[in-house]
Amino acid sequence: ALLSSLTLSFFQHALNGGIRRYHVASVLCQRAKVAMSHFEPNEYINYEKLEKNINIVRKRLDRPLTLSEKIVYGHLDDPAKQEIERGKTYLRLRPDRVAMQDATAQMAMLQFISSGLPKVAVPSTIHCDHLIEAQSGGEKDLRRAKDINQEVYNFLSTAGAKYGVGFWKPGSGIIHQIILENYSYPGVMLIGTDSHTPNGGGLGGICIGVGGADAVDVMAGIPWELKCPKVIGVKLTGKLSGWSSPKDVILKVAGILTVKGGTGAIIEYHGPGMATICNMGAEIGATTSIFPYNTRMKKYLDKTGRADIAALADEFQQYLVPDAGCQYDQVIEINLSELKPHINGPFTPDLAHPVSDVGAVAEKEGWPVDIRVGLIGSCTNSSYEDMGRSAAVAKQALAHGLKCKSKFTITPGSEQIRATIERDGYAQILRDVGGLILANACGPCIGQWDRKDIKKGEKNTIVTSYNRNFTGRNDANPETHAFVTSPEIVTALSIAGTLKFNPETDFLTGADGKKFKLEAPDADELPRLDFDPGQDTYQYPPKDGSGQHVDVSPTSQRLQLLEPFDKWDGKDLEDMLILIKVKGKCTTDHISAAGPWLKFRGHLDNISNNLLIGAINIENGKANSVRNALTQEFGPVPDTARYYKKMGVKWAVIGDENYGEGSSREHAALEPRHLGGRVIITKSFARIHETNLKKQGLLPLTFADPADYNKIHPVDKLSIVGLADFAPGKPLKCIIKHPNGSQETIMLNHTFNESQIEWFQAGSALNRMKELQQKSS
């Protein structure tokens, strides 16, 4: 199914051309004037420009192009002169639009306000989905969220009105489902301030997760930089059947590629199950994921009121599919006919198990087999078909007098999905089997869960149809063993109450004492009637918002206007202390936790009190406990960083592999910069986090020899020398000073290009933008 493929997507000199203003990103199509969205009737799809750019690049490269290349190169700022080499050169691109969720939109809009520009240059939207905590059910939780977050919602609403940004009110649904229903289309290039933006690839678009500073570039009309992606092809053969679903495709791919195997690459699929697959591409580090334009997309566009877009896509179809004979950097082939239902976890989304094996593995590893809670929905699996397949499983249990043994929750992906499953009876079936319908929001998937059934530190198991299962992500309990699988498997396991149940082979006992076996579920991909849109939750920006006042109180604990970071002083970074040497996995959840901290996402100083509190210190094996090198006392990481800043001491962080994987949250870069950090040295970085660090004026560097990670100890001092000659492709020298007076020198690599070096020298990308604006005026 299309929506299921979106789930897969999930689980997977700036001003040289002048600043574009007032939505000039989209030019009228000469063949047909078709709006990008019915919410923006005067912003048109420009397939002719895409066609022109693709033809220029194809002639230059003299080879067939993959679909990913067509759409990416079709959005080049200068297709005739742009240097193009997969995995090496940086591309300057002109995305069609920007989308921001409320937790990241706060900092993005604060940065845009700092830019001094009057209005966004491309169509942009804000989506209120992250600040609604799951507690007692949809309506009550939504009312509570509106009350608690009134200040933030008012800021985002008024900022949207002033600067020309559409505003989706709380209760609208999850950003990615809203994009799928309204904004994604074949050939679009969309960037979003959430790592699961690739969900839109299920409709044939290049949709990429970024940090807020990247979004500000695009909203300011500045070409956006992206390292030219490699392209991994995934060839899907055969046909899904039985309990297997598109979710199992991405769970299988995650097991093959691991959490970093897709880094720097676009995953290009051929076959069914598009949205779910694209969504979770983020879990393998992929830049994004995409499916070629096909009849399923056409049907979905038609069903969501966009038949005119489908007709235009038909006309330009040759540019929305890969060229025959195109070459991929890597090819993976999966036979869907042989694919078994999978469940991945715990603690990482790439630990793949067939559902038939997970019970035995859990017993062997000492993982709890009793399931405390099953949770379905989220941006990855909340389509109409997902809800229908889960309801089909629940209906069988009800027919035999059974309800869920585990607690069971359902998160609709959007108001449209909620209203439609209510109308068609799915919601009531899920309630009857014991389910609790939550608000149309992210909820427990991102840690917005006021969980009451266990105590923190209690070992337990949950199963979800979400995309991530890092330690403590869902409920802030490090002992919660979270597994991700398809919604129908979650439903079946919740009815059985144990990981040892295999719905393909095992029997349940009905209320009458008779044994029965669940049949593989089936459901309509799209509703037979039109979707029910539900309540109208969209706020159009006014034509002229210049008179709109945006209020940020100086005494607010939720919002804080930004002050520019200090410029580089032109000197080497000498005798830096090591704040922490991180042991093992360090995601953006470890660097800047979500959950209860989400309320501070618009206040940099307050949110900085969670800096690296989840990272494990190699010196003592503990989280949030580091040695203060000046006092020799152990204390919390943020307190130690603040002490160093107060004393005027610069500091560094040492990390392991794939540092910063996970969410796109730029707070994980803003916080270390705010508290005095200057350098992050690791074995490797996740793509979005590395870019976010550069944008905020930090130096993300990698060991030329990964074994040098072992040469640095938490008590050492570090000096980065040669910064006066900082240049693209030129390694930097690091001098390690040990407490005994001895020294070692190692080499560090970087991926900075010339404009990114200017960000570092100016103190941040935003500072550099302002410098260029001043020169331009």
Automatic annotation (TrEMBL):
Signal peptide: none
Region (Disordered): 525-552
Reaction equations catalysed: citrate = D-threo-isocitrate
Cofactor binding note: Binds 1 [4Fe-4S] cluster per subunit.
Aconitase A/isopropylmalate dehydratase small subunit swivel domain residues: 578-705
Entry keyword set: 4Fe-4S, Iron, Iron-sulfur, Lyase, Metal-binding, Mitochondrion, Transit peptide, Tricarboxylic acid cycle
Pathway in which the depicted protein is active: Carbohydrate metabolism; tricarboxylic acid cycle; isocitrate from oxaloacetate: step 2/2
Residues annotated as domain Aconitase/3-isopropylmalate dehydratase large subunit alpha/beta/alpha: 69-497
Metal-binding as UniProt keyword: yes
GO cellular component: cytosol; mitochondrion
Coiled coil: none
Swiss-Prot/TrEMBL cofactor(s): [4Fe-4S] cluster
Localization terms from the record: Mitochondrion
One GO process term, biological-process aspect: tricarboxylic acid cycle
Pfam families documented for this protein: Aconitase (PF00330), Aconitase_C (PF00694)
Record function comment: Catalyzes the isomerization of citrate to isocitrate via cis-aconitate.
UniProt similarity note: Belongs to the aconitase/IPM isomerase family.
Name the UniProt record assigns to this protein: Aconitate hydratase, mitochondrial
Organism encoding this protein: Chrysolophus pictus (Golden pheasant)
